[in-house]
Amino acid sequence: QVQLVESGGDLVQPGGSLKLACTFSGSIRDIYVLAWYHQAPGKERAVVARRTSCTMANYADSVEGRFTISRDNAKNTMDLEMNDLKPEDTSVYYCNSVPSRLKWGQGTQVTVSS
Asked: How far apart are alpha carbons 80 and 55 in whole angstroms?
């Protein structure tokens, strides 16, 4: 099964930017929908952004216009560019398919705080 590793999380001030990366151990070409999820303490894991292999992208209302998801099927990677970060974006971020069929990675922590 394809393994995945998330990276790029950090502590950033409000209004700052981060770029998260997800690296897959195998081909993602046949995975139609990939997504970034987030899970804040005490809350369920939820999709933040999703992208199909046909380049269509969808975003949660809370991040629309601030986050951009991209995927590179040739490099087996997926990124999440996060701009104008807000304290409420603080969470652990994970990548996976939709529905989530891959084994979950460790996630990467994003903390937005002054």
From this structure: 14
What is the rounded CA–CA span in Å between residue 23 and residue 74?
Answer: 12
Q: Is 57 exposed, middle or buried (0-12, 13-18, 19+ CB in 10 A)?
A: middle
Q: Which of helix, strand or coil describes residue 32?
A: coil
Taking only the tens place, the pLDDT of each residue in 69-94 is 999 999 999 999 999 999 999 999 99
Q: What share of the chain is helix, strand, coil (3-state, %, to 5)?
A: 5, 45, 50
DSSP 8-state class, residue 104 = P
Helix, coil or strand: residue 63: coil
